[in-house]
TrEMBL record:
Residues 1-29 form the signal peptide. Keywords: Signal. This is Secreted protein. It comes from Paractinoplanes hotanensis.
Length: 128
């Protein structure tokens, strides 16, 4: 999915969005201070939204089976986790407290399926 598609998804949720840099990477990579990684382990794409005292930022979408890394923007107080339906619409899965000074950084995983209304979708986050 492109940067503009991510912005469109977040914009549809009435949010002001700017995309931060990220790159696909393996899930086993170590996370440094102020970094976060989202891995879409399920059958749907997922992304993170950074909430705080600055404009809202979002990561690139992690396609199913892929991971995306990003820096946590300064001023972030919470990270929201989103999944994507096959239609391209997003759904919020949850959130956790985090900041750019967190050391080590965070790894976030989304799993399960969007079949049957997403009955098996889930997520978890941990610091390594």
């Amino acid at each position: 999915m492109t940067k503009s598609a991510v912005a469109g998804i977040a914009g549809a949720a009435v949010l002001s969005t700017a995309v931060v840099t990220g790159a696909a990477s393996p899930a086993f990579a170590a996370m440094g201070k102020g970094r976060v990684q989202i891995c879409a382990v399920g059958n749907y794409g997922s992304y993170l939204s950074f909430v705080g005292n600055r404009p809202l930022f979002a990561t690139y979408v992690a396609a199913p089976g892929q991971c995306v890394k990003a820096d946590i923007p300064v001023g972030t107080t919470r990270i929201s986790v989103f999944g994507l339906w096959s239609s391209g619409n997003s759904f919020e899965m949850g959130a956790f407290l985090a900041s750019a000074s967190d050391d080590p950084g965070w790894k976030v995983y989304t799993s399960g399926s969007t079949a049957n209304g997403g009955a098996t979708r889930s997520w978890w986050a941990n610091r390594n």
